[in-house]
Amino acid sequence: PFGEAAMFAAESLQISAGLAEDEVPDPVLIAMVARYAHNNARLALRCLPEDKGSLRSAIAELGSAVDTAQDAVRSRHPAAKDIVAAVAQETTQLLRSLGPQLPKRCPIPAPVARHSDPEPASKGDFPPRAAVGFGTHELQGSECYTAVLAALKAGVRHIDTAQGYRNAAEVGRAMRDSQVPRDEVYL
Asked: Distances from the Cα of 116 to the Cαs of 111, 112, 176, 183, in angstroms?
């Protein structure tokens, strides 16, 4: 229910905007809710039967604004709180205006799991996965590279990352430089 999830997140942002100054959640959380709203709206657009170029364009622009807010939070920019608040308001306004056009439910097939081996002999061929991975959410640049490299050298074999973190190059370099075989790391 991507459309519903996007609208729920937008409503949550609206509620946070109406709170008293001392009750407003941390900007990191607000930026994460804005990202969640954006991602779900983007996925909902996949289910529209006809080309909705203007909707796609508006959602893409929103994604850029959310990137700016998350960058401000990550870099501890002095105006991060104001930037995040403005993006939260923009997210709410855009999704309220697009809401009726977003499909409420949308069946998207689950991705097929793949392994580097074309035909593994058994499930035992996959590396064991720790219940908790080494998180890279707020890590950027050399800080990310150094932390992931140190974690891999210390024996960590589950790295938690995502496209939205925008640190794939650093994670990849650290994995390569650690010399830990790729099939031993759960990414």
From this structure: 15, 13, 16, 8
**Phi, psi at residue 92, to the nearest 5°?**
-60, -50
Query: From the centroid of its chain, how far is CA 60?
Result: 14
Residues 6+ apart with CB under 8 A from 1: 104, 105, 106
Report how far residue 16's alpha carbon sits from residue 42's, in angstroms, rounded to the nearest whole number.
Answer: 22
Alpha-carbon dihedral sign for residues 71, 75, 81, 83: negative
- CA separation (Å) from 142 to 38, 139, 171? 28, 9, 10
Two tokens at 70?
Answer: 């998350």
| DSSP labels, 119-167 | S-SSGGGSPP--SS-EE-TT--HHHHHHHHHHHHHTT--BEE--GGG--
The DSSP output letter for 1 is: -
Q: Are 125 and 25 in contact (CB under 8 A)?
A: no
Kindly report, residue by residue over 51-106, the tens digit of the pLDDT.
666 777 888 888 888 888 888 888 889 988 888 888 888 888 888 887 777 776 66
Secondary structure element (H or E) that encloses residue 35, with its range:
helix 27-45
Burial of 75 (0-12, 13-18, 19+ CB in 10 A): exposed
